[in-house]
Specification:
The chain is an all-beta fold. Strands 2, 4, 5, 6, 9, 10 and 11 form a 7-stranded mixed beta sheet that branches. It is globular, with a radius of gyration of 13 Å. The termini are far apart.
Length: 113
């Protein structure tokens, strides 16, 4: 069973860049057919798919975030990462990494000065 764990800062200031990492265990991020996603949920709102990186290393992003988001991977560490630039309070949310039906526990990110 694949397990995912998010890590990163819980507090980010406006205009800064958020960097989160998802550490994967129980499976390789290069396994054929697997896609590794970032999803968030803002207070009182539904789940928002942000983007993904595939087993082949190709990233795909939500059009609404495309100018601000980057998803990369470190195969030597079996990790994939999210960077989101120009953070605003509207980016306050619980951020999840996900692969198939496997989810991380989520990490709260608050944007505040």
């Amino acid at each position: 069973q694949v397990q995912l764990q998010e890590s990163g800062p819980g507090l980010v200031k406006p205009s800064q860049t958020l960097s989160l990492t998802c550490t994967v265990s129980g499976g390789s991020i290069t396994t054929n057919g697997y896609y590794w996603s970032w999803i968030r949920q803002a207070p009182g709102k539904g789940l928002e798919w942000m983007g993904r990186i595939g087993y082949e290393g190709i990233s795909v992003y939500s059009p609404s975030l495309k100018s601000r988001i980057s998803i990369s991977r470190d195969t030597s560490k079996n990790q994939f990462s999210l960077q989101l630039t120009a953070m605003t309070p509207e980016d306050t949310a619980v951020y999840y990494c996900k692969a198939g039906s496997n989810w991380g526990q989520g990490t709260q990110v608050t944007v505040s000065s």
